[in-house]
Each structure stands twice: as C-alpha cells, then as structure tokens.
Amino acid sequence: MSTLRQDITVESLKARGQERLPGYMGVEVVAVKEQSVSSRMEIKPFHLAPNTYLHAASVIALADTTCGYATVAHLPEGAQSFTTIELKSNHLGTLREGALACVATAQHLGRNTHVWDAVVTDEATGRKIALFRCTQMILWPKAS
Questions:
Q1: I want to staple 35 with a disulfide (CB 3.0 to 4.6 A). Which of 16, 52, 106, 120 is the partner?
Q2: Domain definitions of the chain by residue range
C-alpha cells in the first residue's frame, strides 16, 4: 500500500520552503518517492562556522528539512501537520565548498509518529558527512 501523497511534489515542497528557513539556507528538493525524499544544498559562506568549516547547524538544517518534507509527503489521511519531537545527528566529516546531498528514508510510518533516517553526503564524492535521525509527532485536528 502506498503511503506517498500524490499532491506533494518537488515543486510544491520548493514553494513551501520559500521565504522560510529552507529557502534561505538554499535547500533544494531533488526527488519525492515512496518512503524517501532527496535534497541538496550548495555550500555558501554563510553555511560555514567562524573556523571556515561547515557549521553543524547547516548540516542539521538540511537533514531536518529533508525529513520534514518527507513527513509532509507521507502524512496519514486527515492529519493536519507534524512537529519534530526528537532529533540526533552524528557528524562524520566536513566540507568547505561544493554541495551536500541528503536522502531521508522512512523507518516507521505510524498513525501518531514517523521516524526518519537521513544520510548527508558530499555530493561530489558520496563521502558521508552526517547521519541523522528524527521522530515526528503527527498532529490531528482537534475533535469538536
């Protein structure tokens, strides 16, 4: 059984992020698939920490956005929205230039929670930069 919402597309997610943090950070959705969303982010000077290496928060912004978009694309019928209730990241490497790629993959798609894993890599080499996991709480309309 498909859990992917047909009304959520690369274009609709791009529009959703405009004038919000994902748009300002340069997060680009590349693909929306069953139980997966892929994205990328070209590294700009504002993504770097004062030591001139990639800031951890930039990597987390890419991974969390990708998992959030994946949740939106897989919300259960009738759900209103979601919120992140837990996240964890392990940083394995860094970059100073180029682009990051991210793939979020569903680990659990329940009625009340989703768990997503994301792998952030150097887009040019495929080298892992970070491993990320988040739990999303599904928000339902309040009963009248």
A1: 106
A2: 10-139
- At 130, the amino acid letter reads A
Reported pTM: 0.95
State the DSSP code for 1: -
In 18-141, alpha helices (H):
21-25, 56-73
Residue among 6, 14, 20, 19 at smallest CA distance from 40 = 14
Residue with tokens 């930039």: 58
Conformation bin of residue 52: beta by default, left when phi > 0, alpha when psi is -120 to 50: left
pLDDT in tens, 8-59: 999 999 999 999 999 999 999 999 999 999 999 999 999 999 999 999 999 9
- Here the tokens at position 14 are 């791009």
Q: Token digits for 53?
A: 């290496």
- pLDDT tier for residue 1 given thresholds of 50, 70 and 90: low
